[in-house]
Design brief:
Length: 569
């Protein structure tokens, strides 16, 4: 303790964080890095596996029903009529980016064979060896070998004509399990992606993995069984020496050096809200909205098609992930929350089979409409994929709730809000009863109403006033220009007139909102190092985590979200 008081924070992070790997998984991206790093690797959370059964590139998420795209100027949710704007020299939104390119799906050539990527031709058209500068034989297509799997952004840039099956192991805040994507395959894909990152990005080989500990910063949407499976993955398959679980919303508060806030995490596919008071989460305030940044990107595309500004480009965000990658880049560059007209001129790219991308200079229209879908969800196009089915686990089992008949000792200095009033469950997750008293967490309301309801559900005027002045936006969408002012204005108007609250403030993030939860997880991991919250690999494999071993705490001040008290059978 004396060391923690005297040492510089940077010194503590450097010394204690060099063997801590912080993992913050999301539906679209996984943020992973050493706690001693300033920022993590932010890698698309996807994998493409070579397949011989399916002739062409296939996207497997869920079975897609027919998609009916509503017109954006129909329905009660759209209060922003179209205003025609000019496209002239006064508009600064012209960005010249290098186009995305198709991924090379073949193994690197060795010895006698030379890859087309590294070879060049002389004046006669013959290939030159890149090392010797001498003539070499053009590789035969039959001699080339496909990569077994491709992860991250390279997986997003695979041509649809290639024999690969593309998967997202996490979707809409849950493991993406369905009759077409088994739990075993989901976990295997997660293992492959994370193992690839650990080896290729962090350079931690298997034989050294036991010297590292893992800090799992888990989204509030994850259920207890999902966390149990991921803990098994980290401790058994990935071979970490020990691991601990922290809650994403609480980590976000620590990442910004706060103790109390209403955390609004706008992810790629879900938006989650939870209130934090004095370093502890208030479980009853947790809410989930079924939309995020990718929904804004799809709304961006539908908007352009509606106004017929996308005609020369054929884009399919479901069959070609590279199109979604491009749309995300365009959305992040051009979309903002702003009244009136907002048009721009941009260079977009069309991708056809294996040929290079074709550039199109295109006028983009109504760029302020898609991000307004956060406040008016009817603006967002219905998802072509339904959420993962919930047949093998239940939404009511979340990482904040106690599910055991165990009388834990409680600390006298912790308020009642740390102890949710939930019916007791059964010792094993296979037979949990349904708790009819628990309200449905997922809500289909706008962001302003959700924030207001989240804060008012605390039931105390003193903490309500504090939280309305301590709203924290996290996630990549939080960087959207104009969003902070819009949240403050719309939340203020959403507060019922009988509530004695007249001030709303969104706090400025001290670090990049995309990485703030990861950073908070690194801080919590370093500060909690050596406490009983950690689960060792040996305990997990040989003994499980026993009832009464005091490894599950209701004391979220020290443990935040340790959800695991299961026999590992």
């Amino acid at each position: 303790m004396d060391y923690l008081k005297s040492a510089l924070p940077s010194q503590i992070m450097s010394e204690r964080g060099s063997n801590l790997v912080v993992i913050n998984p999301g539906s679209a991206n996984v943020r992973i890095g050493l706690a001693s790093q300033d920022t993590p690797f932010n890698i698309p959370h996807c994998i493409a596996r070579h397949t011989k059964q399916i002739p062409n590139f296939t996207v497997i998420d869920q079975i897609a029903p027919l998609l009916k795209i509503p017109f954006l100027d129909e329905g009660p949710g759209n209060s922003f009529p179209r205003k025609m704007g000019r496209v002239d020299g006064h508009n600064p939104h012209i960005r010249k980016d290098l186009p995305l390119t198709w991924t090379n799906v073949y193994e690197e050539a060795t010895n006698s064979s030379v890859s087309l990527e590294t070879s060049s031709k002389d004046e006669t058209g013959q290939f030159l060896d890149p090392k010797e500068g001498t003539h070499s034989k053009e590789p035969n297509a039959s001699e080339r070998k496909f990569k077994e799997f491709i992860c991250g952004e390279e997986a997003l840039r695979i041509s649809p004509t290639e024999p690969y099956c593309f998967c997202h192991p996490i979707r809409r805040g849950h493991l993406n399990i369905s009759q077409y994507y088994s739990m075993q395959q989901v976990l295997e894909d997660l293992h492959t992606i994370w193992d690839w990152i650990l080896i290729e990005k962090l350079h931690i080989p298997h034989n050294e993995r036991n010297m590292y500990s893992a800090v799992l910063v888990m989204p509030e949407t994850f259920d207890n069984r999902e966390i149990k499976e991921i803990l098994s993955l980290v401790l058994q398959e990935l071979r970490f020496g020990s691991a601990v679980v922290h809650q994403e919303g609480l980590a976000a508060v620590f990442g910004n050096g706060l103790s109390t806030a209403c955390v609004v995490n706008i992810g790629a596919q879900v938006t989650s809200l939870i209130c934090i008071e004095d370093g502890g989460a208030l479980p009853s305030t947790g809410k989930t909205l079924p939309f995020g940044g990718e929904d804004i990107s799809r709304a961006f595309l539908w908007t352009q098609r509606h106004y017929q500004t996308w005609s020369p480009v054929h884009s399919d965000v479901f069959a070609k992930p590279i199109d979604l990658l491009m749309l995300n880049q365009l959305k992040e560059t051009y979309c903002e929350v702003k009244e009136g007209e907002l048009d721009a001129v941009a260079v977009v790219h069309s991708f056809a089979e294996k040929v290079p991308a074709v550039s199109h200079k295109t006028r983009l229209s109504a760029l302020n409409v898609p991000p307004m879908g956060l406040f008016y969800p009817t603006l967002l196009t219905p998802d072509v994929y339904p959420p993962p089915p919930r047949t093998w686990f239940h939404d009511y089992e979340d990482m904040l709730e106690d599910t055991w008949h165990i009388d834990f000792s409680r600390r006298s200095d912790m308020p009642d809000t740390f102890y949710p009033n939930v019916n007791g469950g059964l010792p094993m997750w296979e037979s949990y009863p349904v708790f009819s008293t628990k309200p449905k967490k997922e809500e289909k309301v706008g962001l302003a109403e959700a924030i207001t309801n989240c804060i008012l559900s605390t039931g105390r005027i003193d903490i309500q006033r504090k939280l309305f002045c301590s709203i924290q936006l996290t996630g990549g969408v939080a960087l959207t220009s104009g969003l902070v002012a819009a949240v403050e204005e719309r939340v203020l108007h959403a507060i019922p007139p009988n509530e004695a609250i007249d001030t709303v403030e969104v706090l400025q993030s001290r670090t990049n909102p995309t990485f703030v939860s990861w950073k908070g997880g690194a801080i919590l991991g370093v500060l909690d190092l050596g406490r009983d919250a950690w689960i060792s690999r040996e305990d997990w494999i040989h003994n499980g985590v026993h009832v009464g071993s005091n490894k599950k705490y209701k004391d979220s001040y020290y443990l935040q979200a340790q959800a695991m008290c299961y026999m590992n059978s």
